[in-house]
Design brief:
Distance between the termini: 49 Å
Radius of gyration: 21 Å
CATH superfamily of the largest domain: FAD/NAD(P)-binding domain
Shape: globular
Number of domains: 3
Strand content: 25-35%
Number of strands: 19
Number of helices: 14
CATH topology of the largest domain: FAD/NAD(P)-binding domain
Length: 405
């Protein structure tokens, strides 16, 4: 027997960061919520999992930050940007009382969030739970069909939330419309190393940008170093013929990458993806809403996926604080767009400056990014809603080099 009820106020499809965070936040408003996750929890998933200060602040508001920090994940206080052997170092500034980032393994973060959601008042959480379809009353979604431990059941709900990632079944079944699509510009691969040698300060997220490729690296759990490699899609067919060899050689071709891995040993698979399309999806409709990667995703160079999942869960719960209503869901959609759109534009011009950045914008960056303090201010565009793309680039124009959808 599944042991779940026939009806809840809300059913959440997907129990990783976005879904578990939403269940936790909704519990505080008294909702009876069923949280369904297809995978075993905890388990790993494809993700480079850096969390900027605004996302760490969201963990604090969910009252799970102390447990995440107790897992041994180190605080990240700086951002190092390398150009060959030259570098700038930015401070991470305070957001809602938090002035550091974290890079917890997804087994750690997802496991904590799912367990804490399962323990929250009013939440029933199940892993190994597969949603096989949605229930409808005319145009309105009224629940889900699911299979838990081999037993099929229909569950009614006033609202179904799709927190089931970029390949969201909920989004597909409701026909959520796509907009502002950004074609995948790079492929991305990453792995974990022991005995890595990061440059001082070690509590930093390190990036090095080449003409056509990029590395990013920082400390994670168990004293390991996460190392990310991304390159323009043009040579992906060649790269994937021996992806681990090419990944290691190309990371070490960057001076800082060579220092990082000089005495290091790879202790994981090198995992990756050919490229991830950027997009927005329609955020809600009759009886349904989307959150996390199901509703919006940027190029991974932004490192914003976990942040947007955590904050989007909060925005959705805030919108539903006084009850479930389509008009309140529209407020959630507007808030999500307002916060993520400036960072989405920034991801365009950083991931593929050759396609999306204007000459004037490139000149502005060249004139401004000449000191540690200047880099600190620029990096705030990634995680501080008080700094926006349009404000920063106003002197050079805020349109992208190609027409926006």
């Amino acid at each position: 027997m599944t042991g779940i009820a026939d009806s809840y106020d809300i059913v959440i499809v997907g129990g990783r960061v976005a879904g578990s965070a939403a269940a936790l936040a909704l519990s505080r408003h008294g909702y009876r919520t069923l949280l369904l996750e297809r995978a075993a929890m905890p388990s790993d998933t494809l993700s480079t999992h850096f969390i900027w200060p605004d996302g760490v602040a969201a963990l604090k508001r969910l009252d799970v930050l102390d447990e995440v920090r107790a897992s041994g994940v180190p605080e990240i206080h700086y951002f190092q940007s390398w150009d060959g052997e030259d570098r700038l170092v930015a401070d991470l500034v305070e957001i809602d009382g938090v002035d550091f980032g974290l890079c917890p393994r997804r087994t750690v973060l997802d496991g904590i969030l799912f367990r804490r959601a399962a323990e929250a008042p009013g939440v029933e959480a199940r892993d190994h739970a597969r949603v096989t379809g949605l229930l409808r009353d005319d145009a309105r979604i009224t629940g889900v069909e699911c299979e838990i431990d081999g037993e099929r059941q229909q569950v009614r709900a006033e609202l179904v939330i799709g927190a089931d990632g970029r390949n969201s079944r909920v989004a597909r079944e409701v026909g959520a419309e796509l907009s502002d699509v950004m074609p995948a510009g790079r492929y991305w691969y990453y792995g974990y190393f022991e005995n890595a040698t990061p440059p001082e300060p070690e509590d930093a997220f390190i990036v090095s940008s080449g003409e056509r490729d990029f590395i990013g690296s920082t400390r994670t759990n168990d004293g390991l170093q996460m190392v990310l490699y991304g390159a323009f899609n043009d040579d992906f067919d060649e790269f994937r013929q021996d992806h681990e060899k090419h990944y290691t050689e190309r990371v070490m071709a960057h001076p800082v990458g060579g220092q990082l891995l000089a005495d290091a040993r790879l202790v994981s698979q090198v995992s990756g993806i050919a490229g991830i399309e950027g997009y927005y999806r329609q955020a809600h409709g009759p009886g349904w809403a989307l959150v996390g990667d199901a509703v919006h995703q940027k190029d991974p160079i932004a490192g914003r996926g976990v942040n947007e999942a955590l904050r989007g869960a909060e925005w959705l719960a805030d919108a539903l604080a006084d009850g479930i209503a389509d008009a309140r869901l529209e407020g959630y959609a507007e808030r999500l767009r307002a916060s993520t759109w400036p960072k989405y534009k920034l991801a365009h011009i950083v991931a593929r400056s050759d396609l999306y950045r204007t000459d004037a914008q490139g000149e502005l960056l060249g004139e401004r990014l000449v000191s540690n303090a200047a880099l600190t201010e620029f990096m705030r565009l990634w995680y501080d809603d008080r700094r926006t793309f349009d404000e920063y680039f106003a002197p050079a124009g805020t349109a992208l080099a190609v027409a926006e959808d």
